[in-house]
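Posted in: Protein Modeling Q&A

I'm a second-year student putting together a small comparison for a lab meeting, and my supervisor asked me to include a predicted structure for histidine kinase. I've never done this before, so apologies if this is the wrong subforum. The sequence is pasted below exactly as I got it from our records. If anyone can share the C-alpha cell output, I'd also love a short note on what stands out.
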Amino acid sequence: MQTKIFRFLRQFGFYCRLPEMRTFWIILFLIAAVATINFVFLKGIEALIVLGILLVVGSVVFAGNLRLARSNWEVKVERNQLQDIIENLKDGLIVYDPDFKIQIFNKAAEAIFGISMKEIVGQYFNPNFVQNPKYQLLAQVVFPSLAPMIRRLSEPDVWPQIVELSFDNLSLRVITNRVDDPGGRLLGFFKIIQNRTREKELLRSKSEFITVAAHQLRTPLTGINWALEILEKESDLKPEQKQMIGESHVSAQRLIKIVNDLLDVSKIEEGKFGYQMENVNLVEFLADIMASASLVAKEFGVKLYFDRPAGPIIVKIDPQKLSLAVNNFLDNAIKYNIENGEVVVKIEKFSDKPFVQVGIKDTGVGIPAEEIKKLFARFYRGSNVMKFNTTGSGLGLFITKNIIRRHGGEIWAESTLGRGSAFYFTLPTDPKLIPPAEVFYEEE
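Accepted answer (user: helix_wrangler)
Welcome! Here is the predicted structure, written out as C-alpha cells:
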C-alpha cells in the first residue's frame, strides 16, 4: 500500500513540474494575492464566498492543466517509442504526403540511398529528381515506372503495391501502401524498402551449385539407368537377380526424378524455366493426361473419373509445363489413396469470371489441417504419408504452384483427415491476365 502511495506521489510531483503546469502556478499566485486582499477588505460571509469561488477556479485550472500535462507526456513517450522503432527498422521507411513531400526518412533508408534525413525531409519530390545522380535511385523507388527493371508482385489497383526493382548490384523489394483518415480521405503514403541484394546473391549461388551438382549427377545416373534397363531384359538371369536389378532400376529412376526436380527448381528461381504459351483445348488436354495416368491408377487399385464439360474450353498454356503440374496432382492423389479409392477431375467455367477452375479430388488419407499451408513449400512432405511405401523429393507441389502462378492462376487445397483431399487451380480465359514475364513465387 505504501509503495502505491509513494509511486502516486512521485508521479504527481513529476507532472506538477512539467511546462504545462506553469499556467496553474501563475494563477495560483494570483489567487493567493486576491485571497489576501479579500481578507483585508472584506469581512464575514462575503470573504468566504469569494474564497470559495477562487478555490473552485483554482481546482478547475489545476485539474485541466494536470490532465493536459499528463496527456502531452504520454503522447511524447509514445512518439519517442515510435521514433525508436522507425529508426531501428532494418528495412528502409519513407513516408510522404499526397503532394510527395517527404515526412519520414529513417536510418535504413539513409544507408540504402546514401542520402541523409536532413537533406530530404521536407522536400517536395517529383520525377525530375531522376536527372540528379544523387537522387536518381530514390526517384526510381518513389516512382517505380522510372526504374530500369521492374517486376510487379501485386495487382495494379490493389493496395499494398509490391514491386521488385533491379539495378546494377542492387535488388530492392518496395511495398507501398496508402494512409487514409477514418473518412477515407487520402493523407499520404508510406514505402517499406527491403534490400534483397545479399539474399539474391545467396539464392543465385545456391541455384548455381544445385544446377552444377544435378548436371554432374544426371549423366552417370542416366548411364546406370540404361545399363539396368538392358540387364532387366536379359533372359538368363535368376529370379532373385532379376528382382534385384528391377529394384535397382526403380531406384535409379527415382534418383533421376529428384535430380530433374532440383534442376526445375533452380530454373524457376532464376526465372529461366522457359514457357512456350499456346492456345489449347483444356478438356482434351486433361483427358489425354488422365488416359496416361490410368495405368498407374490401375496398379494402385484406384479409379479415375473425369467430370467432362460439354464443349471445348480454350486457354493459353504451356502444355509441357502444365502437364507436369497436373501429373504431380494426379500422382499424389493416386499414390496416397486407399485401396479401391477414387480420383475425380472436374472442370468448371464461370460465366461471370474470366477464369476456369480445375479440381482434383481423392478419397485418400487426407492432410492434417495445420499442414495445409505448408504443402507448397520446398522439400515438404506430409507427416501422415510416411507410412506409404512411396518416395519423393518434396518439390512437386512447389514446382506446381509456380507453374500455375506463371499461367496467371491461383492454387489451393482443402482436406478432411482420413476422408480425402481436393486440390484446385484456376487458369485465366483472358490471355491478358497471364503475367508477361516469369516470376519466382516464394513460399508464403
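A couple of things worth pointing out for your meeting: The longest helix spans residues 45-87. The radius of gyration is 35 Å.
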